[in-house]
């Protein structure tokens, strides 16, 4: 059927309608070919690496939505033991159902959730100190930092409960605090383990203002805040690799923990949708009407996860020095020299350390004050309940005594009544006796007369 058609087409030429519409058909074919090529280019490369992860313990932030959810799905499929750090408690019905779905889908029961609010330094410290407070040290093969936030264009500057700008807190400060406390756990791993810290970065760090410049609230904007947080995270990640390398192991062997940066590219995630729609319903309507263009030019979350999976599975990244950047499943160089500037890194580290110390002290005082107030209120409630209990006992005793008195009075009245009845009877008997005697006397007198 195909060969006769080709022979006829070759000998007689294309049909008449094709000749008449040749130009539109050619243009349409070229347009479709261009769109296909653009889509293939925008989708990026797929992860060519593969690595068994059975028994590997992975801490993952942002693993319930977007790119992080796809990373969690792929790691769970390969048998990794996942510890998902989530804002809500594991008892949340949606989270528990999500985890159970992952377990059932991949027949992997080693998937758990820990409640860690990345906008709270105290919440991060509680989890991290519990993790490292173990002897012997708990196994930890990988830390993947996928969580992030942003404020849509035109949005208000948001602050956490501790008074830190939200983007700076979640994108940078939380990761600094978490890795800082987990550092002993990473350094204590046996030398035969391939330990990786995967830091998710973004190309927006390229257009960030320099960290050498003083940043004030007056120059704040959503785009600048996001770019600056990503630049700070990248600088810190490079400095953290130096921090790990400076540790001298008791066995004298080289450090086996490596920091790897992964740039997933621009993806159709909830954060990107929030950015494009400016967080408004009108923007969302426009986004949905023109969804073809985001679909064409942006990666899917699954494609965005490929560079992170490559950073987790590529065997060559587990050898040699750390601090490498992966983009489109390829090792590339950093676009800014400031990332490897030791003076900038040192200044950033010291300022962040002092800021965290200051905030934690202030929050500790507030928690102590709240605890004292709670204890005081609890004591007052206890005293009030005790006094109410005593009052109820006293009132019960009074009521009992009143009842006893009323009963005794009633008994006395009954006795008095009985006595009065008895006295009446005796009086009547006396009177009857007297009347009998008088009658007998009268009769005897009559008989005598």
From TrEMBL:
Residues 370-389, 411-436 have a biased composition (Basic and acidic residues). InterPro entries: NAD(P)-bd_dom_sf (IPR036291), SDR_fam (IPR002347). Residues 398-410, 437-449 have a biased composition (Basic residues). It comes from the Eukaryota. Keywords: Membrane, Oxidoreductase, Transmembrane, Transmembrane helix. The keyword Transmembrane applies. One of its GO terms (molecular function) is oxidoreductase activity. The chain crosses the membrane at residues 25-42, 281-298. The keyword ATP-binding does not apply. Residues 369-449 are annotated as: Disordered. Belongs to the short-chain dehydrogenases/reductases (SDR) family. This is Putative oxidoreductase-like protein.
């Amino acid at each position: 059927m195909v060969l006769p058609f080709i022979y006829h087409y070759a000998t007689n030429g294309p049909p008449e309608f094709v000749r008449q519409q040749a130009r539109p058909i050619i243009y349409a074919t070229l347009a479709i070919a261009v769109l296909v090529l653009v889509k293939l280019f925008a989708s990026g490369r797929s992860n060519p690496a593969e690595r068994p992860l059975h028994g590997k313990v992975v801490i993952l932030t942002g693993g319930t939505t977007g790119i992080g959810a796809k990373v969690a799905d792929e790691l769970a499929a390969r048998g990794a033991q996942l510890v998902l750090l989530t804002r809500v408690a594991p008892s949340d019905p949606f989270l528990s159902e999500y985890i159970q779905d992952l377990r059932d889908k991949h027949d992997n029961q080693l998937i758990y959730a820990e409640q860690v609010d990345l906008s709270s330094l105290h919440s991060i410290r509680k989890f991290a100190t519990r993790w490292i407070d173990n002897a012997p040290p708990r196994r930890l093969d990988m830390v993947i930092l996928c969580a992030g936030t942003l404020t849509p264009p035109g949005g208000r500057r948001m602050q956490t409960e501790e008074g830190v700008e939200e983007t700076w807190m979640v994108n940078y400060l939380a990761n600094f605090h978490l890795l800082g406390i987990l550092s002993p756990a990473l350094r204590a791993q046996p030398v035969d383990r391939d330990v990786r810290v995967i830091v998710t970065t973004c190309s927006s760090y390229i257009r960030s203002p320099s960290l050498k410049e003083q940043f004030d609230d007056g120059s704040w904007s959503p785009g600048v805040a996001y770019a600056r947080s990503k630049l700070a995270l990248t600088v810190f990640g490079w400095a953290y690799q130096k921090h790990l390398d400076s540790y001298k192991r008791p066995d004298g062997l080289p450090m086996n923990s490596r920091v790897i940066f992964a740039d997933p590219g621009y993806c159709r995630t909830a954060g990107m949708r929030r950015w494009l729609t400016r967080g408004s319903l009108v923007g969302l309507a426009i986004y949905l009407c023109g969804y073809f263009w985001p679909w064409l030019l942006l990666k899917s979350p699954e494609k965005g996860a490929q560079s992170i999976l490559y950073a987790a599975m590529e065997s060559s990244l587990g050898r040699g020095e750390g601090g490498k950047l992966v983009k489109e499943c390829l090792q590339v160089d950093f676009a800014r020299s400031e990332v490897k500037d030791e003076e900038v890194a040192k200044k950033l580290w010291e300022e962040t350390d002092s800021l965290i110390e200051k905030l934690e002290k202030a929050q500790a005082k507030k928690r102590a004050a709240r605890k004292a107030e709670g204890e005081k209120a609890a004591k007052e409630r206890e005293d009030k309940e005790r006094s109410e209990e005593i009052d109820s006992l006293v009132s019960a005793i009074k009521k009992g005594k009143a009842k006893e008195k009323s009963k005794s009075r009633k008994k006395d009245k009954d006795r008095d009544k009985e006595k009065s009845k008895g006295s009446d009877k005796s009086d009547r008997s006396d009177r009857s006796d007297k009347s009998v005697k008088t009658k007998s006397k009268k009769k005897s007198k009559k008989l005598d007369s």
